[in-house]
Design a protein that fits this description.
The structure holds two protein chains of two kinds. By secondary structure, chain A is an alpha/beta fold. Chain A has 16 helices and ten strands. Helix content of chain B is about 45%, strand content about 15%. In chain B, the strands form four sheets. Chain B has a seven-stranded parallel β-sheet with strand order 3-2-1-4-5-6-11, with helices on both faces. In chain B, helix 1 packs across helix 7, helix 2 packs across helix 4 and helix 4 packs parallel to helix 5. Chain B is globular, with a radius of gyration of 22 Å. Chain B starts with a strand and ends with a helix. Classes of the chains: A alpha/beta, B alpha/beta. The interface between A and B is large, with 83 and 77 residues.
Chain lengths: ~425, ~350
């Protein structure tokens, strides 16, 4: 292009006209516009009612005897269902709506919506004509089926919220937790202590020992808090970067509440009032040989302490006994591990000798103890810049966990009972 | 300081055209000059269109002659197909920016430079933090393509602001812009009848509504906001969730095959896929917009989810799984359940 040509595209009154047009257009497209999908509105409102219905159905527990002991345990500690929602959680908007409904009305809600929605009158007439009584105490099977259908619909239409770290509460509560629950209750028979040390609201950092070759200890700790803590909080875990590089594992890890173990993520979660779990021994802890069981490794570089100091949240030492014995690592295929880019490749008494069967963990009896919180409130965020203090605090927490490990091991009668 | 004469580069593309029309409609702005190599399609109001190549020193004459005080550089392009190949794209992006900034440096009238950058410069890797803030560096320096261009462009912009400290320089890192009339690799990708995804990965996406992009650009031009800002809608959307919300079917492809498939698709001119987008499709990316909200003072009106729903509503998608159908099927099943129960009890 050797020369610039100036082309006048509009006149002065053309300017006025386009200005008005632009204004009109922006008004039409505004988020509060009335014309935004007038007919889709009832349809969009509908699933919320359904979500509430199922939420209440599952949360209210089952008045009928439930074969699933996990559900029974949940119902015992949580008779109302309202305390499923804590202020710090993402679903707080849903929680606010949750308080408003009547229990008996819940199963009827889809039907009532069907009447008002002209599009949804397919097979709805019989349901809406039903009297309230038989549905109010509808069998747990029907409730479970309705809940399952609502869950399926949410998954198919993508009607769920994922937070910025990728945590998918809907999937965690309805798929992952029910899958882990039998392992938690019947296989490892996890016993928890000191759950009262975990706060009901606000940020807190749970620091625990790591063991067992496969991070089952993290999953069990998260489930312990989700099921047995009165506030049913979600534990947000800090995981190694390797986790996010492995296909299939990466998305599941993010969806179940893991995020990268780095300073910004830890601080963001703590500042957002989340309960964060960290296993500072990392691969050194989880991949240590069986002969070194229950010997705490170095606690990283103390990054978790400075994160807690900056956010001004308490640090809760947590001790897990039993996870060391699930896959006793008697050897390490270092060369092969390096070739595969893994931190270790374990040899256990059953793996790899028995193939897939060797992947079955040994059924040890687990104890998870949450200790007294280490208060950081007396320290200012500036303390995070003092390496000496951070090291000291790191050591203190490590000592606390090591001591309570010895204590719990003394109390344990046997590995398996 | 309110601008009086504005120069907008890249007006042949939707965002540039919208920005130019907004300024043209503003009575306080006397003169709007749009620059591009191809004429714009629509009516840009009283924008003066200058058919010029910013790679050419001629741009200095335009700036000097019109006494331009505000320059909006929106001509950093993402797609080699639109530019006519990767080397042409790099020329337009890097050499074009250099020429434009050189011209701005020589022009005493220029008081404000706004550059449209991209969050792509943060890269995508499994070692990324959940959200990038403006201070964070990418885990690995971009090796090629759009992100490398944007990285170099930002480098030149930093150099310019060092040499002309009197000029207000705003660098706006936009995430993927989606909206009516926006045709980008991502929108085309999401419009495919079957959406290929990387097997075993589910990236987090963050979108920006084109109205918010326009809002931020005009605010940056009218007010003074020096610095670098991430611009994105609130919240994230998983790719799998996006595919479901659009009623599409995903097609998981093992990651080694994705690049091959992408090249095939590119050859067919269906979609502009380049290898550097593989990381994004596997690991995704999200940015922190706290600075945009608190320092810049702009709160995006659309969240990522709303932006996406708006996009789905806007385009008639063929072969889509209809949301209402799913709800109707569910209600039907519930009705059958209730009826069976009624029969059972009576």
């Amino acid at each position: 292009m050797s020369e610039a040509r100036i082309i006048q595209l509009g006149s002065k009154d053309g300017r006025a006209r386009t200005g008005a047009a632009a204004q009109r257009r922006s008004r039409q497209q505004g988020p509060s516009g009335v014309d935004r999908g007038g007919e889709t509105v009832p349809v969009e409102d509908e699933p919320i009612a359904d979500v509430l219905a199922t939420e209440r159905m599952t949360a209210a527990g089952n008045p009928h005897p439930d074969p699933d002991p996990a559900e029974a345990g949940r119902a015992k500690t949580d008779p109302v269902g309202e305390d499923h929602v804590t202020p710090g959680r993402n679903g707080s908007a849903r929680g606010a709506r949750d308080g408003g409904g009547e229990l008996t009305a819940a199963p009827r809600e889809p039907a009532a919506g069907g009447e008002s929605d002209p599009a949804g009158d397919l097979g709805m007439a019989p349901a809406s004509m039903l009297p309230a009584e038989p549905l109010a105490d509808a069998g747990s099977l029907e409730q479970a089926l309705a809940g399952f259908l609502a869950f399926l619909r949410r998954r198919i239409t993508g009607d769920y919220v994922v937070d910025e770290h990728g945590f998918d509460e809907d999937l965690t509560e309805n798929v992952i937790a029910p899958l882990l629950r039998p392992i938690y209750q019947n296989y490892f028979r996890v016993e928890t202590r000191g759950l009262e040390n975990v706060p009901d609201t606000g940020g807190a950092l749970i620091v625990a020992n790591h063991s067992g070759t496969v991070p089952l200890d993290a999953m069990m700790t998260a489930l312990a808090i989700m099921d047995h803590h009165p506030a049913h909080r979600h534990l947000r875990m800090l995981a190694a970067d390797l986790v996010f590089a492995v296909p299939f594992l990466a998305p599941v890890a993010r969806k179940t509440g893991n995020t990268l173990a780095c300073q910004p993520d830890a601080e963001r979660l703590l500042a957002g009032g989340h309960l964060v779990g960290v296993w500072p021994e990392g691969f050194k802890g989880i991949g240590k040989p069986f002969s070194e069981r229950y010997k705490l490794q170095r606690f990283g570089r103390g990054g978790f302490v400075s994160a807690a100091l900056r956010a001004g949240v308490p640090i809760i030492p947590c001790t897990i006994v039993g996870a060391e014995e699930i896959y006793p690592m008697i050897g390490n295929l270092r060369m092969l591990a390096r070739l595969l880019g893994l931190p270790y490749l374990p040899i256990t008494p059953t793996f790899p000798w028995f193939g897939l069967f060797g992947l079955l963990p040994l059924p040890s009896k687990w104890l998870i103890e949450f200790g007294e919180p280490v208060d950081t409130e007396s320290l200012t965020p500036a303390a995070a810049e003092d390496p000496m203090l951070v090291f000291e605090l790191t050591d203190r927490i490590r000592e606390t966990i090591q001591h309570s490990l010895y204590g719990l091991l003394m109390q344990r009668r046997s590995v398996f009972f | 300081m309110r601008p009086r004469c504005v120069l907008v580069t890249g007006v042949s593309r939707p965002l540039g055209a919208q920005v130019a029309s907004v300024f043209a409609a503003d009575p306080e702005i006397e003169n709007v000059i749009g620059v591009d190599t191809i004429p714009p399609h629509g009516d840009l109001g009283c924008t003066q269109f200058v058919r010029a190549d910013i790679r050419n020193p001629l741009i200095a004459k335009v700036i000097g002659a019109a006494a331009v005080d505000t320059v909006l550089h929106l001509n950093v392009i993402a797609t080699p197909l639109g530019a006519g190949g990767r080397s042409a794209m790099k020329e337009i992006n890097v050499i074009g920016t250099m020429q434009l900034l050189a011209a701005c440096q020589k022009a005493p009238s220029v008081t404000k430079v706004i550059v449209k950058s991209t969050t792509t410069i943060y890269g995508s890797s499994p070692r990324d933090p959940a959200l990038f803030t403006e201070e964070m560096e990418p885990r690995a320096l971009p090796r090629g393509g759009y992100s490398k261009d944007a990285f170099e462009v930002e480098g030149y912009v930093r150099g310019f602001s060092r040499r002309r400290p009197d000029v207000t320089v705003s660098v706006l890192r936009f995430t993927n812009i989606v909206g009516p009339g926006i045709d980008s690799p991502l929108t085309r990708y999401l419009e495919l009848p079957v959406v290929p995804t990387v097997l075993g990965f589910d990236p987090r996406l963050q979108l920006l509504h084109s109205e918010d992009a326009l809002g931020v650009l005009t605010r940056a031009a009218i007010e003074d906001h020096p610095g670098t800002f991430n611009v994105a809608g609130d919240g994230v959307l998983l790719l799998s969730q996006a595919v479901r919300r659009a009623g599409r079917a995903p097609l998981p492809v093992p990651s080694p095959a994705v690049v091959t498939l992408g090249n095939l698709v590119r050859r067919s001119r269906l979609l502009d896929f380049s290898a550097e987008q593989l990381g994004f499709l596997a690991h995704g990316r999200a940015v922190d917009t706290t600075r945009l909200k608190q320092v810049f003072g702009y709160v995006p009106r659309f969240t990522t989810l709303e932006t996406f729903d708006d996009f789905v509503r806007d385009r008639p998608m063929r072969f889509a799984i209809d949301r209402e159908t799913v709800i109707r099927v569910e209600r039907g099943l519930l009705g059958v359940l209730a009826r069976r129960r009624l029969v059972g009890t009576s």
